[in-house]
């Protein structure tokens, strides 16, 4: 019998994914390696004279690891937390309401479009809009004065709390729609038979939400937490435009990426590279912690089954 030659089409799959890897290698991997390399060099401009690149080892890492680093890291986390907590809570509520068959909400597609629209607006446009609305001579102060609620204009951006709340509100408005859509898709992926069985067994909506919905959408929740955490550590455009790059008042809204941007503009490539590496390490550690914390129960169940066997 003649052996039939098997035709392998695997090479076409590799050819199709090759452009992605080439693009990633050129625009992501090489800059990442170059950033790590520059972090070990003294490379900055003093006046019109450029110093370096001179190898200095870990001097840049030691130089940036001071009070400013921890202050700006704290500012970054505060801005992220006060924006993300209401975002995930409201997104969960909206997602559970929209997909609840008992409520029979009409116009679901319309609401999806409406809540997603702010995500299409550029952060710079959002920041300029809020800067105009909440300035001392802006529409918000005018409305409050005409209603007799205030005696004089409120300087929203003159206090740390006011500035941070404005930044958090902008981040919330820009991203809660995207989070809601993802959580709706996750909940819709749960079989309706599970909810019907829970209803027959007498589960209340609260019990159904906390004991069925939340555990079953845990993978999407983990993804949302991790991507939001990474985005929060990279927060730049909103506080940069709202505070004109100063992080006022008293740099209480000054983030690590704003500091990194100013070092790149100086330029001081060595210290900027060190901050980038620190951010990479902090992001990785926090993402691992979030993943382990969210999936702790699953790991315990797997260990119990393994020990039984």
From TrEMBL:
<feature type="transmembrane region" description="Helical">
    <location>
        <begin position="165"/>
        <end position="188"/>
    </location>
</feature>
<keyword id="KW-0812">Transmembrane</keyword>
<dbReference type="InterPro" id="IPR050809">
    <property type="entry name" value="UgpAE/MalFG_permease"/>
</dbReference>
<keyword id="KW-1003">Cell membrane</keyword>
<feature type="transmembrane region" description="Helical">
    <location>
        <begin position="12"/>
        <end position="33"/>
    </location>
</feature>
<dbReference type="InterPro" id="IPR000515">
    <property type="entry name" value="MetI-like"/>
</dbReference>
<keyword id="KW-0472">Membrane</keyword>
<keyword id="KW-1133">Transmembrane helix</keyword>
<feature type="domain" description="ABC transmembrane type-1">
    <location>
        <begin position="73"/>
        <end position="290"/>
    </location>
</feature>
<dbReference type="GO" id="GO:0055085">
    <property type="term" value="P:transmembrane transport"/>
</dbReference>
<feature type="transmembrane region" description="Helical">
    <location>
        <begin position="77"/>
        <end position="98"/>
    </location>
</feature>
<feature type="transmembrane region" description="Helical">
    <location>
        <begin position="209"/>
        <end position="230"/>
    </location>
</feature>
<feature type="transmembrane region" description="Helical">
    <location>
        <begin position="110"/>
        <end position="134"/>
    </location>
</feature>
<dbReference type="Pfam" id="PF00528">
    <property type="entry name" value="BPD_transp_1"/>
</dbReference>
<dbReference type="GO" id="GO:0005886">
    <property type="term" value="C:plasma membrane"/>
</dbReference>
<comment type="similarity">
    <text>Belongs to the binding-protein-dependent transport system permease family.</text>
</comment>
<dbReference type="InterPro" id="IPR035906">
    <property type="entry name" value="MetI-like_sf"/>
</dbReference>
<keyword id="KW-0813">Transport</keyword>
<protein>
    <submittedName>
        <fullName>ABC transporter permease</fullName>
    </submittedName>
</protein>
<feature type="transmembrane region" description="Helical">
    <location>
        <begin position="272"/>
        <end position="294"/>
    </location>
</feature>
């Amino acid at each position: 019998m003649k052996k039939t030659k098997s035709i392998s089409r695997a090479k076409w799959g590799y050819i199709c994914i090759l452009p992605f890897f080439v693009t990633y290698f050129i625009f992501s991997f090489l800059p990442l390696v170059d950033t790590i390399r520059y972090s070990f060099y003294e490379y900055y401009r003093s006046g019109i004279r450029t110093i370096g690149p001179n190898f200095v080892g870990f001097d840049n890492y030691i130089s940036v690891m001071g009070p400013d680093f921890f202050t700006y890291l704290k500012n970054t986390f505060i801005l992220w937390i006060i924006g993300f907590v209401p975002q995930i809570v409201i997104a969960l509520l909206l997602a559970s309401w929209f997909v609840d068959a008992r409520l029979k909400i009409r116009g679901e597609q319309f609401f999806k479009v409406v809540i997603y629209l702010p995500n299409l607006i550029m952060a710079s446009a959002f920041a300029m809009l809020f800067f105009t609305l909440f300035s001392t001579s802006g529409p918000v102060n005018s409305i409050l004065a005409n209603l007799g609620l205030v005696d004089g204009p409120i300087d929203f951006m003159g206090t740390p709390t006011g500035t941070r709340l404005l930044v958090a509100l902008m981040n919330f408005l820009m991203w809660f729609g995207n989070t809601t859509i993802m959580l709706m898709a996750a909940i819709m992926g749960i079989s309706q038979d599970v909810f019907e069985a829970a209803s027959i067994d007498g589960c209340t909506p609260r019990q159904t939400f906390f004991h069925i919905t939340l555990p079953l959408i845990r993978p999407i929740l983990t993804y949302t937490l991790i991507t939001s955490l990474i985005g929060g550590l990279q927060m730049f455009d909103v506080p940069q435009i709202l505070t004109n790059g100063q992080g006022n008042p008293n740099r209480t809204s000054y983030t690590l990426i704003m500091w990194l941007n100013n070092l790149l503009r100086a330029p001081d490539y060595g210290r900027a590279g060190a901050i980038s590496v620190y951010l990479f390490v902090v992001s990785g550690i926090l993402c691992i912690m979030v993943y382990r914390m969210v999936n702790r129960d699953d790991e315990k169940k797997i260990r119990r089954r393994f020990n039984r066997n």
